[in-house]
Give the backbone structure.
Amino acid sequence: MEKRKVDVAIIGTGTAGMGAYRAAVKETDSIALIEGGEYGTTCARVGCMPSKLLIAAAEAAHNTEKASSFGVNSEITSIDGRAVMNRVKSERDRFVGFVIESVEGFNPDHRIKGYAKFKNDSTLIVDDKIEIEAKSIVIATGSSPAIPPIFGDVKDKLIINDDVFDWDDLPNSVALFGPGVIGLELGQALHRLGVDVKIFGRGGFVGPLSDPDILDYATKAFQEEFYINPDADVTSIKQIGDQVEITYRDFNGECVTDRFDYVLATTGRTPNVKNLGLENTSLPLDERGVPVFDPYTTQVGNHPVFIAGDANNDKPLLHEAADEGRIAGANASNYPAVRAGHRSSSLGIVFSDPQLATVGSSYASLQEGCFAIGEVSFENQGRSRTMLVNKGLMHVYGEIGTGRLLGAEIFGPRAEHLAHLLAWAHQQQLTIPEILEMPFYHPVIEEGLRTALRDLNAKLKLGEKPPKHCIDCGPGA
């Protein structure tokens, strides 16, 4: 067996792994960058980029459908599913190509193809061919879709979100389980592209929302467009021939049986740590078998091991994985001089329509009585009405006493932009009065944000109560 000694060994070349490598190579040339699968990130291959390509096609169809509301006569004569999927796959492959090009630009002497397992805390075995002794190790192995046992009777018609982007054509019908971030995006997009979609969930959750008012509003809004039951009573799932038969109770409590071309499971993701041989180490593990780590240093206990990205199951988002990778790589290459890295304010976005977004502290994480809520409905918001996107509700949270922005939950038009503004303000630890001193152009959707902030400012006893009616519809607001 070949034996090597390196300063830093990095397992995985996804977003976190590449970030770790770029940080580590600044400090040392003694690196092993190990990858067992294909090069290319989850985001580029099966995540954010191909899903946004599918959503873009769905938006084109939806905008054509609603054009008549503006007096523009148009209609959809057909949706070419093959053309839709051809563009999705073609552009997806282009994005993946950029990632592969980046990895292949790394020093070839550092790259090792194969699956790594821990022999002990500081030694890895790659495919039983190479033994690597490292001063420090970074785990950046990503995650995989989780499949609950409820789908045990479904064979070749059970798919995960990864499989959607390999379709050559759109199916006629899909039963989707899991109305989280991925499920909402894919479910609504497929519906708007003419696929008969029903979405089933458990526990009443929709996306990342925890604020009961926002959750209730969003659920009802989605239900006006397509079938979604966030707390479904499904009694049977089984494959019958080339279809899947599902029996469930509808909203009236009646037992209904439908058949679908596919069951799409978007029921969460599991960190890829099961086959790493962690049982051969002394690393502290949680009840799921995931290493326990410090989110600011990414260090596992007091060991020379660091874990970053989806593998740690903390914040499975690309920008978080990139940040964690840089922190892990820097600390691994400078071990034992471990330093806390900069962590951005929490920011999450769901590209549904209307969009969902969360910023900073969620409603569920806030202490009762220590915060106030500013609210705005987008139903009468000026710019939203001009574009016929006037559906949504936003809550902004502020700390009583200090007036500091704590967070927000949003269901509304252009929520991705509103959330970015709030995340920047949150990271700067601005107070509500300080944010209100910022410029707001007229007429823009961001004026709705100002309305919510003014409402919050008054409830925090830091400003006057805003007028009852819309004040962002005219000059001098």
Summary: The domain at 149-267 is CATH 3.50.50.60 (FAD/NAD(P)-binding domain). The two ends are 74 Å apart (CA to CA). The CA atoms of residues 120 and 264 lie 39 Å apart. The chain has three domains: 2-144+270-334, 149-267, 347-459.
